Amino acid sequence: MSLAVVYTRALVGVEAPQVTVEVHLSNGLPGLAIVGLPETAVKESKDRVRSALLNSHLEFPARRITVNLAPADLPKEGGRYDLPIALGILAASGQIPSEKLAGYEFVGELALSGEVRPVKGALPAALACQTAQRVFITGPDNGGEAALTGEQSCLTSANLLRACAHLHGREPLPQAQVPDAPPAIPPPELADVRGQEQAKRALEIAASGGHNLLMYGPPGTGKTMLASRLPGILPPIQTREAMAVAAVYSVSDSTPPPWLQRPFRAPHHSASAPALVGGGGSPRPGEISLAHGGVLFLDELPEFQRQVLEVLREPLESGEIRISRAKAQTRYPARFQLIAAMNPCPCGYFGDNDSRCRCTPDQIRRYRGKISGPLLDRIDLHVPVTAVPPTELNRAPAGESSAQVQTRVERARRCALKRQGKSNSELEAKDIETICQLNPTDEEYLAAAVNKLGLSTRAYHRVLKVARTLADMGQSEGISRQHLAEALSYRGLDRV
């Protein structure tokens, strides 16, 4: 048979659309042509495939070979198509049975020796193959990643010959195995933070409702220390969430967090907009997508360029980011919890009891003006972190452990999930009307407070979401005046 069809997967963001590799052998001048919108690395696969076949002691047909990667309008990049192209040539030339290829999908780059090398995005490809009810075959280095799907339909092939032997039914390929996880690194302990009870309370509220948090105060008051303790009190990540996190890291160049641990990303304030949001000629996920399912910590918030901070506005609302390029549009998940820290003024000591601040009102206004109102609106909690004298700090008793606080956080999250199926921070405007109902007296109280503080409609909704979280923490069915008052107290920067 001079025509063979092999299935593989492309990579578009964290999605893996199916690609059909059609190989046709015909009479004519010997050569290999690849069509179907291949980029340079795919065009070069003809040389890798030819050497891999010859070095594996297989025949490279001395005929005119046409390889079509369908659909033709989907850009193809990388060396992931080497293995399916080689197998397609072997099937078209009758060296392996072509009828067995329909039940498999192949992804892998070939070395000149015929060994199968790893590629990016093996996990999204394995998940898509599982949905298509086919057996996924890739290289050993991608096997551990593919095995995270939990299915027994992921096989690994060390080289091209092993894949051929499997298709001939002579030597079955081994199942992909999840590698032994390294010892989990426990997150920093909340009990190490002495004092700062208000900030720790706000941290627990943020964890309970999935809210964004901004801490502001003089240098050295523990803002970074508090932020690093948030992952330790968040609810344990579920397998489905961990799979989504692993899929993002599968298509990136970053080292993934340990399995079943939430990511914690803390980019430097010199980061550019593409570094934060993702991008490039071949778009790759940025910091906000690498923080998906976990925490994005932005220290020294006003030191980030304003246009860099503005790119946060859309993903904070939608939980995803879309990167548009001339060739295609790429979507990455970006449902993260934003924790930010900043000084109250350029020198950092405005409002300090020692009166060390020498900044003029105009300097302070310009400094805070680097953070736009729309971005502040999207941050639910604005919490001052004041300086504590070292003598008082040494006498302060040790606080609650992360495990104790995490227990309460999980209880509050369960209340929200049971009621609406998602965290309070994810409530939409239509949900707020029914889930965050107030009695007439409290409605008047909140309306008066909103008018006095000059809050926007978005900030008004954020207050109600935080109040709903406070009610869940107190195991209260409804939102009371006390919950509203505390939620309003966390809109400090709106009043400055």
TrEMBL record:
GO terms for molecular function: ATP binding; DNA binding. Pfam families: ChlI, Mg_chelatase, Mg_chelatase_C. InterPro entries: AAA+_ATPase (IPR003593), CHLI-like (IPR045006), MCM_dom (IPR001208), Mg_chelat-rel (IPR004482), Mg_chelat-rel_C (IPR025158), Mg_chelatse_chII-like_cat_dom (IPR000523), P-loop_NTPase (IPR027417), Ribosomal_Su5_D2-typ_SF (IPR020568). Residues 286-381 form the MCM C-terminal AAA(+) ATPase domain. It comes from the Bacteria. Keywords: ATP-binding, Nucleotide-binding. Belongs to the Mg-chelatase subunits D/I family. ComM subfamily. NCBIfam families: PRK09862.1, YifB family Mg chelatase-like AAA ATPase. This is YifB family Mg chelatase-like AAA ATPase. It comes from Gilvimarinus xylanilyticus. The lineage of its organism: Bacteria, Pseudomonadati, Pseudomonadota, Gammaproteobacteria, Cellvibrionales.
